[in-house]
Amino acid sequence: MEQEPDWGRWQRPAPTPRQQRHDVALMLLVLLVAAGMTLLITSIGTVAIGSAPSLTEQLAWTAGLTVPLALRRRFPLVVLAVVGALFIAAQMRQIGDGFMPSVVLFLAIYSAGAWARHRARARWARVAVIVAMFAWLGIGLVRYAVAPGHPPNAAGPLDPLVATVLYQIVFNLMFFLSAYFFGDLAWRSARGRAELTRRAEQLRASQEQNARGAIVAERVRIARDLHDVVAHHVSVMGIQASAARRVLDRDRELAGSALRTVEDTARTAISELRGLLGVLRAEPDAEGRPDAGHQASPGLAQLPALAAATRSAGLDVHYGEYGDPRPVPDSVAMTAYRIAQEALTNVVKHSGARSAQLRVRFLEAGLEIEVSDDGRGCGGDSTPAGFGLRGMRERVAVHGGELEAGPRRDGGFLVRASLPAPRPATSDSAELPVP
User: Fold this and answer.
1) What is the pLDDT of residue 432?
2) How many angstroms separate the CA atoms of 145 and 148, rounded?
3) Is the pLDDT of residue 430 over 60?
4) How many of the other CB atoms lie within 10 Å of CB of 5?
5) What CATH architecture is 296-423?
6) Which helix (H) or strand (E) holds 147?
7) Please, which of 80, 173, 237, 333 could form a disulfide with 299 given CB 3.0 to 4.6 Å?
8) Highest mean pLDDT among 40-54, 68-82, 321-335
9) Where are the annotated segments for Disordered (predicted)?
10) How far apart (Å, rounded) are the C-alpha atoms in residues 34 and 305?
């Protein structure tokens, strides 16, 4: 069984070719917008402090900041370091536009949190860049404080310098924390999708395994039922046909009786096979049981007929019921019938017995079916494949019962199956007397 991965050490897979193409497209879009913004700012002539470099140099700084975004998912930490360094360098050169470089820096911090494979490195790399940006912000605020010409028309309750410092700190704090938070959120979301995908794969594998197990169990059940039906009736037919062949020239009436038994047994076998196939082909009802329109499986009521059919094969079978007869579940009744059928078939085929006993006992908490004979003590399972006893044990195990099979001390063979079949509780016995 495949070991469950340690999700605490999960690493995000490398980006797909499609995602890499999307990164290139995003880089081109940001580069186009940034170049346009630089052109507009330069045309307006708005510069925070000092004078801006030439338009060509500003466009070069814009391209240098933006192009690394094409690799933001493949090498997120490298892109973050490059963008962070170029951002501060461009600010030192006092390029005109500050908005689009901030967007590029946001994407770099976000990508490091969302795609870096080593989480500790991703965390400390982002913290280092954020600390460096706040240090640069502090330098800028100091330059702003010592520069002449503060806004002369400030009318708020705070000093313009204090207000500028607070504004810049709050704005940049929200900016960097948002990039950090949404990057981690994207990484956790990807890990959650990976977990769901794995759970779905495990569920599909489990369902396929259960389906295969159900198919194998159903094949075993069908094989068991076919063996029980065919083996018994074919054995009876074989014995009767052999008897008819031996006496055909001497006693045509006896031979005709044996052949009639063969004919009747063949009809019975075909009827049971049709019933079995009908159950297999039937659509289940709302409770999962086969359609009641098909022929019912044999049960306790057919045991006397089974004993009579076995007598026609030359085995003197004595049938008896003991205890208080009562209805039992259909599955238990069919299992009892099949066990009796298989045990009698083995007696006829292998034991050389002259007589057998078929007993049904209705116990307080179960049903007991017993077949014994006076043969050589090999009436259980002398077939090479051993389908007889194995099939009986499987049937009994389905109901949680017990099977006893083996030679008897005084000769012969005994098969006894105990099947749980509790007596239904009556309402009268459950009531307490009212004083």
Assistant:
1) 39
2) 8
3) no
4) 12
5) 2-Layer Sandwich (3.30)
6) none
7) 333
8) 68-82
9) 402-435
10) 96
Task: Give the burial string for 320-353 (b: 16+ CB within 10 Å, else e).
Answer: eeeeeeeebeeebbbbbbbbbbbbbbbbbbbbeb
pLDDT at 312 over 90: no
Q: Is 64 left (phi over 0), alpha (psi -120 to 50) or beta?
A: alpha
> What is the structure's pLDDT at 70?
94
User: Residue 373 in contact with residue 405, Cβ under 8 Å?
Assistant: no
Paired strand residues for 366: 420
Q: Indicate the pLDDT class of residue 152, thresholds 50, 70 and 90.
A: low
pLDDT tens sequence across 405-428:
989 888 889 999 999 988 765 544
- Cα separations (Å) of 59 from 24, 64, 105, 332? 19, 9, 17, 88
3-state secondary structure of 338: helix
DSSP single-letter state for residue 18:
H
- The answer to whether 276 and 228 are in contact (CB under 8 A) is no
| Strands ordered across the beta sheet of 355-362 | 316-323, 355-362, 366-373, 413-420, 402-407
* DSSP three-state, residue 372: strand
| Rounded Cα–Cα distance for residues 291 and 92 (Å) | 85
If you average pLDDT over each of 47-51, 124-128, 204-208, 271-275, which comes out highest?
A: 124-128
Domain residue spans in the chain? 11-147, 296-423
Single-letter amino acid, residue 33: V
Cβ neighbours of residue 364 closer than 8 Å, sequence gap 6 or more: 423
Residue 36 token pair? 């346009």
DSSP string, 295-335: PPPP-GGGHHHHHHHHHTTT-EEEEEEEE------HHHHHH
Dist. CA 190–CA 202, nearest whole Å: 18
Query: Residue 125: which of 186, 89, 66, 84 has the closest Cα?
Result: 84
How far is Cα 221 from Cα 330, in angstroms, rounded to an integer? Answer: 16
